[in-house]
Amino acid sequence: MQIRDWSQYRVRMPPELHSKIVHSARENWRSMNAEVVMILEKHYAENEKGIGAEFGDRPDASTTE
Known about the structure:
- By secondary structure, this protein is mainly alpha-helical.
- The chain is 46% helix and 0% strand.
């Protein structure tokens, strides 16, 4: 599959999170898009192994309730 076949999705995020992703992408010599894809792939790989399941019962993991 070629990159042009990938789905596109616009996302809103808090400015602080955006800054963290930009910083991380620069440190890892990736584009911001590649960094977000890597983070999501890692998240789902860990979920398949049962790691990080504590967030699974909350619809919005960014909340602290």
